[in-house]
Amino acid sequence: MLDWEELIKECNNCRKCGLSNTRTNVVIGRGNPKATILLVGEGPGEQEDKQGLPFVGPAGKLLDLLLSALMFKEEDYYIANIVKCRPPNNRVPLDEEAEACLDYLRNQLLLIRPKIIVCLGSTAAKHIIGKDIKITQIRGQWVEKKGYWIMPTFHPAALLRDQSKKILMWEDFKKIKRKLDEIKQSYKGDYHDKR
Ligand code: URA
Ligand code: SF4
Question: For residue 47, which atom of ligand 1 is closest to its CA?
């Protein structure tokens, strides 16, 4: 396991998959490195590639709006993606690209030690929960795996295309907020300090 400094350096120099040929920036993550919630998207889009930060384009604006409307605090979460380099034309990352990149996300998971993992969309859900899942069937239901509470939900970009998903995603994030509040109550402070 690498520490943050080593991990960031390794990601920035990474050429483990073909996405390294077309990226501008490697997008590692943003948010609290000791967050209770880890949100995982698919891969950087155009804005993310330019700025080197995840979810800073239109989908990110919508996600931030949802999180702040439900009273999540910025310190509650950290945001990352399945792949750290932008797939050309925002295509879905290939399995081999995701597999090449996932060790970095696993390393981030070990460093952050969240209690809740939110899979934003089917790419994240496939690589985190299981390859045969259908997001429309499993969204909104907690999956307990390896000591984490995992919530699959829609990708915020899907909401931009289909307004009818808004209410469902809102419901999913209400469940996540409830779980976060329970965790905060039961630990009475930051559990990261209580091994
Ligand atoms: N979509 C994603 O999946 N991730 C981002 O960082 C931005 C848009
Ligand atoms: Fe490396 Fe991941 Fe970028 Fe591929 S997507 S080059 S594995 S950092």
Answer: 7
